[in-house]
Write a structure and sequence with these properties.
Two copies of one chain form a homodimer.
Chain A (H helix, E strand, L loop, with lengths): L2 H23 L4 H13 L3 E2 H7 L4 H13 L3 E4 L8 E4 L3 H32 L4 H30 L9 H8 L6
Antiparallel strand pairs in A: 1-3, 2-3
Chain A binds a DNA duplex through helix 4.
Amino acid sequence: MTAAAHTFQEAELLIADAVGEVIEHWGFRKPLGRVWTVLYLAGDALPAATLSERLSMSTGAVSMTLTELQEWAVVRRVWRPGERREFFLAETDLWKMISKVVSERERFWVRSVRERMEQACVLLRTLPTEEGKGALARARVLLSFAQLAENVIERFLTSRRADFTGFGVLEKTARTAATERR
Amino acid sequence: MTAAAHTFQEAELLIADAVGEVIEHWGFRKPLGRVWTVLYLAGDALPAATLSERLSMSTGAVSMTLTELQEWAVVRRVWRPGERREFFLAETDLWKMISKVVSERERFWVRSVRERMEQACVLLRTLPTEEGKGALARARVLLSFAQLAENVIERFLTSRRADFTGFGVLEKTARTAATERR
DNA sequence: TAGTTCTTTCAAAGAGTTCTGAAAGTACAG
DNA sequence: CTGTACTTTCAGAACTCTTTGAAAGAACTA
């Protein structure tokens, strides 16, 4: 292997593992982030064997991971004329990917939390005791937090990027990237 | 047990489990959320035995959970004159709690992700190949996302509540009860 | 001091999750 | 149809995380 190829794979692994952590923090398995990252950085479709090699994963693990990534529409399968094996290509629109997960997973989850809190408030309202009244007041605070979260998600999904405009690193940096100085 | 007490505990468990899930989603153990919730809803200090009873947890689990909650300054220990056992009281300022976690945990974590991405970009800059240049461009996109996240966190911590003003369920309902401003 | 009551600790059990790799499945070429 | 190349599946292994409960510890009382 050339020195350049070695450097490339070092950087690749560094980013793959970082993304793996992020994605794990978000409730997915680490390998999903790692595999997606390798495909994303490649900028081109790659066969499963390459992924297995570069990330030291078994064929089984790669296969399962690619299946899951395709279910989330974050990777897609492509055919190469003349090639027998299949290639995999990463989705590149990050906002689209994030929206999809928020919309298909977070949304229902937060709603269920909010609903259970409402249900609990209904129960607490029937209580005449001092303890019951106090608990109701506090339960309502928690409920309002759940509602806040639901609102934020709803707005995010309609506005496509919530109110992150103004935090705007993206607008500037994504193009020029004057960031890594060392 | 009276009917009212039964209703109370049903509601309590409903909320405790919902909060447990939320907190688990946020990377903590479920029992932390459950125990905190019981204390919070009680609005008063409670002995460990009560928690163990109401949440069906072993004494050991309750003790460990309370220790962790105290480390996060989300519960504190209270001494009652004439009582031999100790009582535990929930912190009620939700924003304060959230800020603390973001500040002491998320902040460093996101920074480490961003740093690794910068490091990877530095490596990729040295590559003359087409593959290397393309990967660098894409790595910079990921880096800018990490920077965005870091910015959001930073702003959240300085503004105490990010730009959630305008999503404002909280202004109506919660402010009076939960959040006394600083 | 000894006795009582409550709390903490931690080794081991238990539960849950993820990965491996061999075998089965699929698809294509000759 | 048969052989080859590749992919998927899934039972079991390996691993991680959590909880239990008994014993040690601590704090107070008499």
